[in-house]
Amino acid sequence: MSKGVRVRFAPSPTGPLHIGGVRTALYNYLFAQKHNGTFILRIEDTDQTRYVSGAEAYIIESLNWLGLIPAESVDHGGDYGPYRQSERRDIYTAHVEQLIEAGHAYYAFDTPVELEEMREREKANGKHSPKYDASIRMTMRNSLTLSDAEVQDLIEKGENVTVRMKVPEGEVIGFSDEVRGRVQFDTSELDDKVILKADGLPTYHLANVVDDRLMEISHVIRGEEWLSSTAHHVLLYRFFGWEAEMPVFTHLPLIMKPSGKGKLSKRDGAKFGFPVFPLEWNDEKEGAIYAGFREEGFLPDALINFLSLLGWSPGTDQEMFTRDELAQEFSIAKIIKSGAQFNYDKAKWFNQQYIIASPTSELLALVADDIKAVGGDLSDEFISGVIDMLKPRVESIGEFVTEGTYFWSAPTAYEEKPLKKKFKLDNQAHFEEIISALQASDAWDAESLSALVKGFINDNGLKFGEILPVLRICMTGSMAGPDLFEMIALLGKEETVSRLQQGLKEAIAIKTAS
Ligand code: GLU
Prior knowledge:
This protein is mostly helical. The protein is built from 21 helices and 13 strands. It has helices spanning 19-34, 55-66, 89-101, 112-124, 148-157, 204-214, 230-240, 266-272, 300-308, 323-329, 344-357, 360-375, 380-390, 399-402, 405-408, 416-422, 428-440, 446-459, 464-476, 484-491, 493-513, and strands at residues 6-9, 38-41, 105-108, 162-165, 172-177, 181-186, 194-196, 219-223, 248-252, 255-256, 281-283, 288-290, 340-341. The protein has a 3-stranded antiparallel sheet with strand order 3-4-7. Strands 1-2 form a two-stranded parallel sheet. A two-stranded antiparallel ribbon has the order 5-6. The structure holds glutamic acid.
């Protein structure tokens, strides 16, 4: 009986998860949600030479942060485990033996030097890209060319014992890809891929196909870079007699550089000043730290929304999608066939929209500690007020701290140019009266304060433009910032009066000095 939709995200822990990998995970996750299916995380760690410590934990932490939680995984368990390939060695060995017995695979004992010699020889014979294939295999040291006794002997010695799949000659291997349509490869283009390495572990191709079948994967959704491997995979399905259970393949187009030219690489992040990883990654080998979306102040929902549209289109102008809407709307048929251009400004725009839409209490939980670290012992109520005011003005979570400085420290410098322009010494007495009126005011909410100051301006025949900008600079040091009276209301009477008095002194000094 069909198990319904079962999809897997199958990263190799060879380094941090690139944003393209996150998108692959997301599309698998959404597809599973849409079809009430199962989203599985499988760790493909059979290549010991490329294993990077910390990478698996990084992958899991990234998915957790983004809320892409698998139903089956190393952490969550499941009926199809183990979910880490290095723990499935026996399963692969048994399957490789099955292929050898059926004549679909053979032992190969060639050393790296012999393989290199073969390539040189073939190049000298005029071949462009020589490979271990039907035209070559009978000239090499393998179980097809050596006697049984020799083969046994070499296996026992255990040096350079690999197993290769035997790609048939003169065939066209075709499969249907949901994005590309019909894809075909001539077997003359395919080499006899190693499926079991000298270290006894399988290669990606063998392990991937065996696991997809044993885990009853219904749909394979992965990056375009795996398209050419699929021909080998289709052959393996046939060798095992699993053709009828072959998953539906979808290869996602690449994520391109902001220029649209070439694949987005990890170095582009550093080059253009944006993150290409979900979380910060400390690359000890390179001695480099790569920025992460989380540390750059992104909300996970914003990144999800941004990535959902980086290669998929709902077919309408709608840009903002809740997770539920995405799960409803997502469809493989609407994956965009060309590469998706990475646009960091768009990512920041999404983040801003999500920050504006976030309840203040949620933002408070994210930023309170950082604000207290620079602003001192501030109350949650006060910080919430700051968040409310800054929400429409920040693009990242970190900006609540960097943009909000004037809420916890009185200005130490004042923007001179506008202050000189707007402040008139003749108005000094008016400012003093405004300060006194504020000091005497019983009401301390933005509306009353605004009515008080604006009423004073009107009653005295003054202009808003000669008073309000000066008050603002006295309060924050600059012309920028949220609504003046809301800010004054939040900062309280004592702080406001003290800032205005200090600012007025500065204004007079600046003006008299010029
Ligand atoms: N382990 C492969 C990777 O790192 C998985 C490719 C696939 O999904 O088949 O991307």
